[in-house]
Amino acid sequence: MAFGLSRAELNQWKKKVKAGEIAFITHYWLHPKDPSIRTVTKVGCSNLTRLTEWGNQYGLKKEWIHQRDFFPHYDLVGHRQKEILIQENQWEQLKRFKIK
Q1: What are the CA-CA distances from residue 18 to residues 7, 73, 76, 97 (Å)?
Q2: Which 3 state secondary structure label does DSSP give 74?
Q3: Are 99 and 91 in contact (CB under 8 A)?
C-alpha cells in the first residue's frame, strides 16, 4: 500500500512514463518481508529499451522490470534506492522521505 503522495504527483509520474521519459516517484510503503524498509522508489519509462539501458548502468536486470498497468518500472528499496537517488540528483525525494 502506498502512502505520502498525492494523486497529482502520481498522475504526473504516469504522464512522464507514458511519454517515454525516465520518471521517479517515491512513496511510503509497508514491505511485507522487511519491516525496516519503509519507502520504495519507482523508476518508470514506457520505452523498455530506454528503461533497460538506464537500469543497466546501475546493475539492474531487465527481468526486474515490473510491467503492470502500462507503466513499466523498477522498484528501488534499501541501500540501492539511496545510492541511485543520490546519483540521479533526486534530492527532494531523499529529503522529503528522510532516506538516510
Answers
A1: 16, 11, 20, 25
A2: strand
A3: no
